[in-house]
Design goal:
The protein is of the alpha+beta class and 265 residues long. The chain is 32% helix and 22% strand. Helix 3 packs antiparallel against helix 4.
Protein backbone atom coordinates (compact mmCIF):
# COMPACT_ATOMS: atom_id res chain seq x y z
CA UNK A 1 0.00 0.00 0.00
CA UNK A 2 1.49 3.34 -1.05
CA UNK A 3 1.96 6.03 1.59
CA UNK A 4 -0.11 9.14 0.95
CA UNK A 5 2.17 12.06 0.03
CA UNK A 6 2.19 15.09 2.37
CA UNK A 7 -0.30 17.84 1.56
CA UNK A 8 1.29 20.88 -0.09
CA UNK A 9 -1.84 22.88 -0.92
CA UNK A 10 -1.96 26.51 0.27
CA UNK A 11 -5.41 28.10 0.54
CA UNK A 12 -6.12 31.54 -0.90
CA UNK A 13 -8.28 33.81 1.28
CA UNK A 14 -10.52 36.58 0.00
CA UNK A 15 -12.67 39.21 1.73
CA UNK A 16 -15.01 36.53 3.06
CA UNK A 17 -14.48 35.85 6.76
CA UNK A 18 -13.27 32.23 6.84
CA UNK A 19 -10.23 29.98 7.33
CA UNK A 20 -9.61 26.43 6.15
CA UNK A 21 -9.33 23.77 8.88
CA UNK A 22 -5.92 24.25 10.57
CA UNK A 23 -5.35 20.48 10.29
CA UNK A 24 -5.03 21.04 6.54
CA UNK A 25 -1.82 23.04 6.99
CA UNK A 26 1.55 21.77 5.87
CA UNK A 27 3.97 20.27 8.39
CA UNK A 28 5.75 23.62 8.67
CA UNK A 29 2.37 25.19 9.45
CA UNK A 30 1.87 27.17 6.25
CA UNK A 31 -1.90 27.10 5.72
CA UNK A 32 -3.17 30.06 3.73
CA UNK A 33 -2.39 33.45 2.22
CA UNK A 34 -4.49 36.57 1.81
CA UNK A 35 -7.21 38.12 3.90
CA UNK A 36 -6.63 41.09 6.18
CA UNK A 37 -5.99 42.15 9.77
CA UNK A 38 -9.47 43.30 10.76
CA UNK A 39 -10.49 42.43 14.31
CA UNK A 40 -13.04 39.80 13.29
CA UNK A 41 -10.51 37.89 11.20
CA UNK A 42 -7.81 38.00 13.86
CA UNK A 43 -10.24 36.71 16.50
CA UNK A 44 -11.37 33.92 14.18
CA UNK A 45 -7.78 32.99 13.40
CA UNK A 46 -6.58 32.80 17.02
CA UNK A 47 -9.69 30.94 18.14
CA UNK A 48 -8.81 28.27 15.55
CA UNK A 49 -5.11 28.09 16.39
CA UNK A 50 -4.02 30.07 13.33
CA UNK A 51 -1.72 33.09 13.43
CA UNK A 52 -0.30 35.55 10.86
CA UNK A 53 3.41 35.61 10.07
CA UNK A 54 3.72 38.40 7.52
CA UNK A 55 6.75 39.42 5.52
CA UNK A 56 7.65 42.89 4.31
CA UNK A 57 8.60 41.36 0.97
CA UNK A 58 5.14 39.97 0.19
CA UNK A 59 1.77 41.58 -0.40
CA UNK A 60 -0.33 38.58 0.65
CA UNK A 61 -0.56 37.73 4.37
CA UNK A 62 0.72 34.22 5.26
CA UNK A 63 -1.23 32.32 7.94
CA UNK A 64 0.24 29.43 9.93
CA UNK A 65 -0.76 26.57 12.22
CA UNK A 66 2.44 24.57 12.87
CA UNK A 67 2.82 20.91 13.71
CA UNK A 68 4.13 20.51 16.37
CA UNK A 69 3.01 23.53 18.37
CA UNK A 70 5.32 25.04 20.99
CA UNK A 71 3.42 25.64 24.25
CA UNK A 72 3.99 26.51 27.89
CA UNK A 73 2.02 25.55 31.01
CA UNK A 74 2.05 28.49 33.46
CA UNK A 75 2.30 26.28 36.55
CA UNK A 76 5.20 24.35 34.98
CA UNK A 77 7.26 27.39 34.00
CA UNK A 78 10.94 26.97 34.84
CA UNK A 79 12.71 29.93 36.46
CA UNK A 80 16.48 30.04 36.63
CA UNK A 81 18.18 30.94 39.89
CA UNK A 82 19.53 34.17 38.37
CA UNK A 83 16.07 35.24 37.21
CA UNK A 84 14.56 34.54 40.61
CA UNK A 85 17.32 36.68 42.13
CA UNK A 86 16.52 39.46 39.67
CA UNK A 87 12.83 39.37 40.59
CA UNK A 88 13.63 39.73 44.28
CA UNK A 89 15.60 42.92 43.58
CA UNK A 90 12.38 44.78 42.66
CA UNK A 91 14.26 46.77 39.99
CA UNK A 92 11.39 46.75 37.54
CA UNK A 93 7.85 47.97 37.95
CA UNK A 94 5.43 45.84 35.92
CA UNK A 95 2.25 47.21 34.38
CA UNK A 96 -0.37 45.66 32.12
CA UNK A 97 -2.15 47.33 29.20
CA UNK A 98 -1.02 50.88 30.01
CA UNK A 99 1.02 51.47 26.82
CA UNK A 100 0.15 48.66 24.44
CA UNK A 101 0.99 50.64 21.32
CA UNK A 102 4.53 51.40 22.47
CA UNK A 103 5.13 47.75 23.32
CA UNK A 104 3.93 46.57 19.90
CA UNK A 105 5.93 49.21 18.04
CA UNK A 106 9.07 48.34 20.02
CA UNK A 107 8.52 44.68 19.22
CA UNK A 108 8.32 45.66 15.56
CA UNK A 109 11.53 47.69 15.55
CA UNK A 110 13.92 46.42 18.24
CA UNK A 111 16.10 43.64 16.74
CA UNK A 112 16.50 40.38 18.67
CA UNK A 113 19.33 38.01 17.69
CA UNK A 114 18.18 34.58 16.43
CA UNK A 115 14.53 35.35 17.14
CA UNK A 116 11.47 36.77 15.39
CA UNK A 117 11.67 40.46 16.09
CA UNK A 118 11.23 42.73 13.10
CA UNK A 119 8.81 40.55 11.10
CA UNK A 120 5.83 42.74 11.98
CA UNK A 121 4.33 44.96 9.29
CA UNK A 122 2.63 48.30 9.86
CA UNK A 123 -0.75 46.81 8.93
CA UNK A 124 -0.37 44.05 11.53
CA UNK A 125 0.63 46.62 14.15
CA UNK A 126 -2.54 48.58 13.41
CA UNK A 127 -4.62 45.40 13.51
CA UNK A 128 -3.22 44.46 16.91
CA UNK A 129 -3.87 47.93 18.30
CA UNK A 130 -7.52 47.62 17.26
CA UNK A 131 -7.67 44.14 18.82
CA UNK A 132 -6.30 45.65 22.04
CA UNK A 133 -8.97 48.36 21.95
CA UNK A 134 -11.58 45.58 21.83
CA UNK A 135 -10.03 43.99 24.95
CA UNK A 136 -8.44 40.87 23.41
CA UNK A 137 -4.80 41.88 22.93
CA UNK A 138 -2.67 42.69 25.96
CA UNK A 139 0.74 43.97 26.95
CA UNK A 140 2.97 43.32 29.94
CA UNK A 141 5.36 46.22 30.43
CA UNK A 142 8.57 46.60 32.45
CA UNK A 143 9.53 50.07 33.67
CA UNK A 144 12.83 51.24 35.13
CA UNK A 145 12.79 54.68 36.76
CA UNK A 146 9.49 55.35 35.02
CA UNK A 147 10.78 54.48 31.53
CA UNK A 148 9.48 51.59 29.44
CA UNK A 149 12.47 49.24 28.98
CA UNK A 150 10.90 45.93 28.00
CA UNK A 151 7.74 43.96 27.55
CA UNK A 152 5.67 41.60 25.51
CA UNK A 153 2.23 41.35 23.99
CA UNK A 154 -0.21 38.66 22.94
CA UNK A 155 -3.81 37.70 22.35
CA UNK A 156 -6.10 36.11 24.94
CA UNK A 157 -9.34 34.23 24.26
CA UNK A 158 -11.01 32.15 26.96
CA UNK A 159 -8.37 30.45 29.09
CA UNK A 160 -5.79 30.60 26.31
CA UNK A 161 -3.03 33.15 25.62
CA UNK A 162 -1.02 33.39 22.42
CA UNK A 163 2.30 35.14 22.99
CA UNK A 164 3.27 37.20 19.96
CA UNK A 165 6.51 39.08 20.54
CA UNK A 166 8.72 40.69 23.17
CA UNK A 167 11.47 43.27 23.37
CA UNK A 168 14.06 44.43 25.89
CA UNK A 169 16.09 47.62 26.15
CA UNK A 170 17.45 46.56 29.54
CA UNK A 171 18.77 43.09 30.51
CA UNK A 172 16.07 40.85 32.04
CA UNK A 173 13.28 43.43 31.57
CA UNK A 174 11.12 41.33 29.26
CA UNK A 175 11.83 38.17 31.27
CA UNK A 176 10.59 39.73 34.50
CA UNK A 177 7.48 41.08 32.73
CA UNK A 178 6.84 37.65 31.22
CA UNK A 179 7.12 35.74 34.50
CA UNK A 180 4.96 38.30 36.32
CA UNK A 181 2.32 37.81 33.64
CA UNK A 182 2.64 34.02 33.92
CA UNK A 183 2.01 34.25 37.68
CA UNK A 184 -1.17 36.21 36.97
CA UNK A 185 -2.23 33.50 34.52
CA UNK A 186 -1.93 30.98 37.35
CA UNK A 187 -4.26 33.12 39.46
CA UNK A 188 -6.67 33.81 36.59
CA UNK A 189 -6.94 30.24 35.32
CA UNK A 190 -5.30 30.84 31.93
CA UNK A 191 -3.77 27.42 31.57
CA UNK A 192 -2.23 27.33 28.08
CA UNK A 193 0.33 29.73 26.62
CA UNK A 194 0.90 29.36 22.90
CA UNK A 195 4.54 30.07 21.99
CA UNK A 196 3.79 29.03 18.39
CA UNK A 197 7.23 27.82 17.19
CA UNK A 198 10.36 26.61 18.96
CA UNK A 199 12.88 29.07 20.37
CA UNK A 200 15.77 28.32 22.72
CA UNK A 201 14.71 31.27 24.86
CA UNK A 202 11.24 29.87 25.65
CA UNK A 203 12.51 26.29 25.87
CA UNK A 204 14.56 27.43 28.87
CA UNK A 205 11.29 28.50 30.51
CA UNK A 206 9.88 25.00 30.05
CA UNK A 207 8.00 25.33 26.76
CA UNK A 208 7.66 22.09 24.80
CA UNK A 209 6.36 20.72 21.52
CA UNK A 210 2.77 19.47 21.37
CA UNK A 211 1.23 17.66 18.42
CA UNK A 212 -1.05 19.96 16.45
CA UNK A 213 -3.99 17.58 16.76
CA UNK A 214 -3.75 17.59 20.57
CA UNK A 215 -3.17 21.33 20.70
CA UNK A 216 -6.26 22.06 18.61
CA UNK A 217 -8.39 19.69 20.69
CA UNK A 218 -7.44 21.51 23.89
CA UNK A 219 -7.78 24.92 22.23
CA UNK A 220 -11.38 24.22 21.20
CA UNK A 221 -12.23 23.64 24.86
CA UNK A 222 -10.33 26.66 26.18
CA UNK A 223 -11.66 29.31 23.77
CA UNK A 224 -15.25 28.79 24.95
CA UNK A 225 -14.30 29.65 28.53
CA UNK A 226 -15.12 33.22 29.65
CA UNK A 227 -12.59 35.71 28.28
CA UNK A 228 -10.90 38.14 30.65
CA UNK A 229 -11.21 41.31 28.58
CA UNK A 230 -8.85 44.21 29.00
CA UNK A 231 -7.56 46.42 30.23
CA UNK A 232 -5.86 43.96 32.57
CA UNK A 233 -4.84 45.13 36.02
CA UNK A 234 -1.62 44.17 37.81
CA UNK A 235 -2.41 42.47 41.11
CA UNK A 236 1.17 42.01 42.33
CA UNK A 237 4.76 42.91 41.42
CA UNK A 238 7.66 40.55 40.53
CA UNK A 239 8.66 39.63 44.09
CA UNK A 240 5.08 38.56 44.88
CA UNK A 241 4.78 36.88 41.48
CA UNK A 242 7.70 34.71 42.48
CA UNK A 243 5.78 33.60 45.58
CA UNK A 244 2.69 32.76 43.48
CA UNK A 245 4.87 30.69 41.16
CA UNK A 246 6.48 28.82 44.07
CA UNK A 247 3.12 28.04 45.66
CA UNK A 248 1.70 26.59 42.43
CA UNK A 249 4.74 25.15 40.65
CA UNK A 250 4.28 21.66 39.21
CA UNK A 251 6.96 19.58 37.49
CA UNK A 252 6.29 19.10 33.80
CA UNK A 253 5.99 15.54 32.57
CA UNK A 254 7.84 15.75 29.27
CA UNK A 255 5.53 14.50 26.49
CA UNK A 256 6.77 11.96 23.97
CA UNK A 257 6.39 14.39 21.10
CA UNK A 258 9.17 16.57 22.52
CA UNK A 259 11.57 13.65 22.22
CA UNK A 260 10.89 13.08 18.54
CA UNK A 261 13.23 14.93 16.18
CA UNK A 262 10.81 14.34 13.30
CA UNK A 263 8.19 16.49 15.02
CA UNK A 264 10.39 19.56 15.18
CA UNK A 265 9.93 22.03 12.34
Amino acid sequence: MHKKPPRELIFLLNEELWFPPPEEGRKDGFLAVGGDFRVERLLLAYSKGIFPWPSSSGSLIPWFSPDPRFVLRPESTHLSRSLRKEMRKKRFEIRFDTDFESVVRNCATVPRPRQRGTWMTSSLVEGMIKLHQEGYAHSAEAYLDGKLVGGLYGVSIGSYFSGESMFALEPNASKVAFVTLIAHFIRWGIGLVDCQVYTDHLARFGAYNMRRKEFLEELRIRVVHPTKLGPWQVEFQPDEALMVWKENAKPLEKPLEEESESDES
